[in-house]
Amino acid sequence: MEKVPMTDEGYRALDDQLKQLKSVERPAVIAAIAEAREHGDLSENAEYHAAKERQGWIEGSIAEIEDKLSRSQVIDVSKLSGSAVKFGATVHLVDEDTEEESVYKIVGEDEADVKARKISIASPIARALISKEVGDVVEVNTPGGVKAYEILKVEWK
């Protein structure tokens, strides 16, 4: 069974999502199905079919989240240190071509949010950064071609 790395923050977010699905979404869809059944002929009842489809999606989501949580490997980033980039690191980079600086935190796949500057451990840039240190230059294949970044700083927060 493959472990799913995630930060404590990511674990809590998934757990909150699971609680929402179980305590709010599931009862609401069960009520919607019961109400749609009262309308008679189920074969031509669009509300019933939509509610059943929604129920299938909710149950699938619950199973998927429970699986991820059961296989989770929660990593406390505050206890990590070192100069090499690894899971949980906040990395300051500079684009070698444009001199544009950027900051990314390497997180689990379910936590990735580019707008929040959180990138998945499985992303091309994160894979290129892993095990590198301050001063190293990494090349990343992007849709726009190969980009070179220099690592300016590695933080643990």
UniProtKB/TrEMBL annotation:
<comment type="function">
    <text>Necessary for efficient RNA polymerase transcription elongation past template-encoded arresting sites. The arresting sites in DNA have the property of trapping a certain fraction of elongating RNA polymerases that pass through, resulting in locked ternary complexes. Cleavage of the nascent transcript by cleavage factors such as GreA or GreB allows the resumption of elongation from the new 3'terminus. GreA releases sequences of 2 to 3 nucleotides.</text>
</comment>
<dbReference type="InterPro" id="IPR006359">
    <property type="entry name" value="Tscrpt_elong_fac_GreA"/>
</dbReference>
<dbReference type="GO" id="GO:0003746">
    <property type="term" value="F:translation elongation factor activity"/>
</dbReference>
<comment type="similarity">
    <text>Belongs to the GreA/GreB family.</text>
</comment>
<dbReference type="InterPro" id="IPR001437">
    <property type="entry name" value="Tscrpt_elong_fac_GreA/B_C"/>
</dbReference>
<keyword id="KW-0251">Elongation factor</keyword>
<keyword id="KW-0804">Transcription</keyword>
<dbReference type="InterPro" id="IPR018151">
    <property type="entry name" value="TF_GreA/GreB_CS"/>
</dbReference>
<protein>
    <recommendedName>
        <fullName>Transcription elongation factor GreA</fullName>
    </recommendedName>
</protein>
<dbReference type="InterPro" id="IPR036953">
    <property type="entry name" value="GreA/GreB_C_sf"/>
</dbReference>
<keyword id="KW-0648">Protein biosynthesis</keyword>
<dbReference type="InterPro" id="IPR022691">
    <property type="entry name" value="Tscrpt_elong_fac_GreA/B_N"/>
</dbReference>
<dbReference type="InterPro" id="IPR023459">
    <property type="entry name" value="Tscrpt_elong_fac_GreA/B_fam"/>
</dbReference>
<feature type="domain" description="Transcription elongation factor GreA/GreB N-terminal">
    <location>
        <begin position="4"/>
        <end position="74"/>
    </location>
</feature>
<dbReference type="Pfam" id="PF03449">
    <property type="entry name" value="GreA_GreB_N"/>
</dbReference>
<dbReference type="InterPro" id="IPR036805">
    <property type="entry name" value="Tscrpt_elong_fac_GreA/B_N_sf"/>
</dbReference>
<keyword id="KW-0805">Transcription regulation</keyword>
<dbReference type="InterPro" id="IPR028624">
    <property type="entry name" value="Tscrpt_elong_fac_GreA/B"/>
</dbReference>
<keyword id="KW-0238">DNA-binding</keyword>
<feature type="domain" description="Transcription elongation factor GreA/GreB C-terminal">
    <location>
        <begin position="83"/>
        <end position="155"/>
    </location>
</feature>
<dbReference type="Pfam" id="PF01272">
    <property type="entry name" value="GreA_GreB"/>
</dbReference>
